[in-house]
Design goal:
The structure holds 2 protein chains of 2 kinds. Chain A has 1 helix and 8 strands; from the N terminus they run αββββββββ. By secondary structure, chain A is mainly β. Chain A has 2 domains: about 35 residues, no CATH class; about 80 residues, Immunoglobulin-like. The termini of chain A are far apart. In chain B, β9 and β10 form a beta hairpin. Chain B is mostly beta strands. β1 of chain A pairs antiparallel with β7 of chain B.
Chain lengths: ~140, ~130
């Protein structure tokens, strides 16, 4: 494969960038920015785990959350805004469409242990750890 | 993995310096659409409440600032992070023909919608020609 240098000739990283770009678009290389939406932060504690994601412009009704075993799935759709006819786009940086993301939890949970809330476009899912999966302390008896 | 959404840009930090508390400042992703009546702008400000948005217009520069409310859940520690949290700031230069008094702003689900109607003077006017 040929790698023509895009942009400035004296930019030593241009070739590397174009190779990275090809790798990402080929789908061989895991890309963090283009494939995974939404980006998530995972918070952990002894009794629960929380997952937060930024989903601005998405109504709470358009988000679906399910838990099966130890996999938490967040999916939904961001609808494009209603634009009157004859309108011209000057800038389109936001993305629209369907998304789905699966997150593996460190324990198995059921739907009734999950609580989700959407505040100002930030989704927060709290999964409480079922009693039986909590680590148990084993007393050591003295002889 | 499915990636049906047309994700254009990542959350990018601005060139602006950090905040007082050491947090980063991010550049909100923006859609701008122009209609005959004016321009509407949609800015993504996730985690920013309606009371924490500040919009100023000074010398034709429209500046939007949003103060984020941290989402740290109680008694939990951050284990894995894919995005950063921080305040938002972005400035836009406007052409002169907007009426500053009629700019409307609405905050919903972390998206700020700004409606900038064109001022009456700049609406195309028809000049009648009288016969002699």
């Amino acid at each position: 494969m040929l790698y023509p240098i895009r942009g400035r000739r004296n930019d030593p990283f241009a070739l590397m960038r174009s190779m990275m770009h090809d790798l990402e678009s080929s789908g061989v290389w895991p890309s963090t920015s283009r494939v995974t939406f939404p980006a998530v932060n995972v918070w952990q504690g002894p009794d629960a785990i929380a997952v937060t994601a930024e989903l601005p412009g998405i109504e709470a009704d358009n988000v679906e959350i399910s838990v099966k075993g130890n996999v938490l799935t967040v999916s939904g759709e961001r609808k494009a805004p209603a634009i009157p006819e004859g309108a011209r786009w000057h800038r389109n940086e936001r993305g629209y469409g369907k998304f789905s993301r699966a997150i593996r939890l460190p324990f198995a949970a059921t739907d009734d242990k999950v609580e989700a809330r959407m505040i100002n476009g930030v989704l927060r899912i709290v999964v409480s750890r079922p009693e039986e999966t909590k680590p148990r302390r084993i007393d050591v008896k003295a002889a | 993995m499915t990636g049906d959404i047309t994700q254009a840009t990542e959350k990018t930090p601005t060139d602006a310096p950090e905040t007082r508390t050491g947090g980063r400042i991010y550049r909100p992703l923006t859609d701008i659409v122009e209609t005959d009546q004016g321009v509407s702008m949609m800015l993504e400000l996730p985690g920013v409440g309606p009371d924490h948005v500040e919009i100023t217009l000074e010398n034709r520069v429209l500046t939007v600032r949003g103060k984020v409310e941290q989402t740290q859940p109680d008694n939990l520690q951050l284990a894995y992070a894919e995005y950063g949290e921080g305040d938002f700031e972005r400035a836009f230069s406007l052409s002169e023909d907007f009426d500053p008094d009629r700019i409307e702003a609405e905050m919903r689900n972390g998206v700020l919608t700004l409606t900038l109607p064109r001022s009456a003077e700049t609406q195309p006017r028809r000049i009648a020609v009288r016969g002699a």
